[in-house]
Amino acid sequence: MAESGQRYERYEGGSPEAERLVFERLAKELMEVQLRNGRTGGGMSRAFHAKAPLAVENARLRFHDDLPAELRVGFARPGAEYPATVRLSNASGIRQGDGAPDLRGAAVRVRVGEDESHDLLATSHPVSHARDAREFVGFAKAMAGADTPLRKAFGLFVKLPLTVGVGAAIRMRRTIRAATRRTVTSLATETYFSRGAVLWGDAGPVHYLLRPAQGTAPALAPDREDPDFLHREIAGRLARTEVVFDLCVQRFVDERRTPVEDASVEWKPETAPVVPVARLTVPRQDVDEAAARAAAERVDELAFNPWYTTAEFRPLGNINRARKAAYHASSAHRLGLAFVTPEPLRNRLLTPPVSAAFGLLNRAVPWHRLPLPLSLLNLVFLRRTLRRHNLIDTEPREAPPRAQPVPPPPPERLRTERSYDGTYGDLSVPGMGAVGAAFGRNLPPDHRPDLFDTPNPVTVARELLHRERFLPATSLNVLAAAWIQFQVHDWVNHRRHGPGERSVEVPLPPGSAPWHNTPGGPAEQLMRFADNVGLPVPEGRPPILFGNTASHWWDGSELYGEDERTARLLREPDGGAGLRLEDGHLPLGPQGLPLTGFQDNWWMGLSAMHTLFAREHNAVCAALRAEYPSMGEEHVHQTARLVVSALIAKIHTVEWTPAILATEAIDLALRTNWQGPPRNWLDRLGLWLFEAHSLKGIPKTLPDHHTAPYSLTEDFVTVYRMHPLIPDDFELCEHHFGQRLETVGFTDIQGAAAEPRIRKTGLANTLYSFGIAHPGAITLHNFPRALRHFERDGEIIDLAVVDLVRTRRRGVPRYNDFRAGLHKRRIRSFEELTENADTLGRLKEVYRSVDEIDTVVGLFAENPPTGFGFSDTAFRVFILMASRRLQSDRFLTVDYRPEVYTPLGIDWVEKGGMNSVILRHCPELAALLPRDASAFAPWRTVRPGTDGGSDD
């Protein structure tokens, strides 16, 4: 049935997908119109039809017994009667007096059944002032906030021609004058026209209209000084009698006389006869009594949309197709489910030339070599460029739009709680960022099956990645390595096929020793490991779309789990708010692994992080119970989840990241992300001129997804391949006197061996041992030996090879294309990448050209800026996604407030940090933590034979 409607339509840009992108941009512009109207008209309202003189829930629609046979479609059956909701309104988006020149509108929701309803929207003029959605939104922008005759004139005669062109503006003004010059005395005596076409099953396109039933009495002369005279008139009328309209249709004749795409052309009755099909009755009632007023308020909360119907009655034409996205965005904005932050005019005018100037400057001087104020401003413009060009939505979207039932409102509890699976992270798009949502992209995917094994990834790993000697990152400690794995487990996880289902096969280079792919398995001349499970993709697109089995939101799911069943299992018995602990440690489950939200690739460092933050959750619970004795256990648990997740996000933003990117510019930039810029007038002036949105810390702003719906990306996954951070051996020490307890290899503290070891060592000694030890540097020739022959899920893998293969098969561009896509100059020779003679020789042996270099290899080989723990190319994905993870999340922006977190919860996050978490649960470590640095910097070492300062 939908296909039968499409034959009447022509898509802007030549395809439904191209048109969808246009409509999404127009929908955002409409939200900005709504915001400006709200500032003028006394609060956020509908983008159009803000004021409703009548809104009732108890109307009825009955189809005529003699309904023509060709119009008997779906719910349109002879004699069928349905309840209906009716809203009659003034068309303006500003709540103004009823006497102001304006159109009037009718919105009717016909309720056929629990899962079926039909929204009919009509306006009191037979044609639209706009031919298409661009003109419609252009008119709305020109007239936004026009609440006086002077402002209306300025909008019509100055702003409108600039927006839509002189010719279109003249035509639109002519239509508006014709539509509004007539005096309206009663909403009951107006005729309301759909103006756009809808499908009527096999009968094809129709226009519909609601006209007063024969015998409707004219209105008395109104008191036009009364701003609410239309309400008083129809209220008085309904107090005496019912109000009745005939629902009529006009059928499509031909594209010239009854066009579907151009809503500004009238379907004249002499060409398309008006056929009555049903009668809409608003019963006699007192609309001013309490129950009726309450009903009117409920109706005013409704989001009407012509796409809330069935495929047999789907809307047709450009304006109608735009309405789905536009009305959804407008209603979500009005109801506080979606948000928009307009960019000040000064920012829009000044940004392009200054951004271009920085682009030219950076050809000679990279941002990190500029003086501090300039480097900070450079980062602002770099992030703007990345937001504009490097957020690519991969989630399949409906194009063209499809009819749908009225969506249910968000569950009330999820307005103030995180769901476990990430749904309703954005209340207006429940599935955004949820478990199973597709990974997005920062760069267009480059799917090259012909290069999957070129050069051989085993050769690349052996020659360029495998650790030959341990290269330490001396500015960090091993807690930094454990922390990032702790975070990545919250953010990203690709689902893998089960054993024997579907494998990737990588041939070994000639002369290689055989490989055992399973414990005790046969020797083979290839490496084999489970392939990722892809998502279905539209025909013709490469099969490189993958879903995230974690939620994309920063929600602590590595602690709490990705579904409610797991979450309940992890909690204290009988619905307690806390997480289950046994003697301060996570309880053990099958195979000796702990019960926690995510336990893959488990080792002692992860155990320390999970144990520490499980204890922190329970400490928050105890504090909430003490401060708010009437708070139930479920409320305590959910609030503690919010607090701990936000604290983790803050620690990562203002502590871990500045520790690994140890420069003053990054430290200032990330603290600005969380708490706003310093009180330096020059920095604040720069932001005021160029990016006023950053004058406050992100938690004090509104959610903003920028140019694509929120998701984490495949490119983000690639730059967080930081396995070189893991050492191959560890010295476990006692923190009181610095005595060595034992030296262990990674395999000794990995998998099921981790929990007995941390219980034996103790959390405080474990944290101390990792706090004084250095992780590996993120560079070539430093991939942990223990991960080169790593047993996982019944497979033996070389994780270095897997990293290379996964990145290639997921369509992440090779290194040179990757850096060019992130607005860095391409390298033209191997010498530009490294000055190390040995590495240079190996690169030339392995790769035929610089364009063939693997992304992971290039990122590790690149000389990073001074103080950086990873490359500037990787940093570009980071600077884009680091703020995005905060900015998109309502629980870290608009709902980061005492009403949701409680005052205690907000205080806990704002005053907390990694040091406070460690000291709350291991106070004996106070003297060992760095005094003027993050807990991820090297700790003070206690020399054997001295007193470490403990009071134990």
From TrEMBL:
Record's keyword annotation contains Heme: yes
Composition-biased stretches (Pro residues): 402-411
InterPro entries: A_dioxygenase, Catalase_sf, Haem_peroxidase_animal, Haem_peroxidase_sf, Haem_peroxidase_sf_animal, Oxylipin_biosynth_metab
Gene3D superfamilies linked: Catalase core domain, Haem peroxidase domain superfamily, animal type
Keywords for this protein: Dioxygenase, Fatty acid biosynthesis, Fatty acid metabolism, Heme, Iron, Lipid biosynthesis, Lipid metabolism, Metal-binding, Oxidoreductase, Oxylipin biosynthesis, Peroxidase, Plant defense
Cofactor(s) needed for function: Ca(2+)
Pfam families assigned: An_peroxidase (PF03098)
Region (Disordered): 392-417
GO molecular function, one term: peroxidase activity
PANTHER family found in the cross-reference section: ALPHA-DIOXYGENASE 1 (PTHR11903:SF11), PROSTAGLANDIN G/H SYNTHASE (PTHR11903)
Name listed for the protein in its UniProt record: Peroxidase family protein
Organism: Streptomyces gibsoniae
Origin organism lineage: Bacteria, Bacillati, Actinomycetota, Actinomycetes, Kitasatosporales
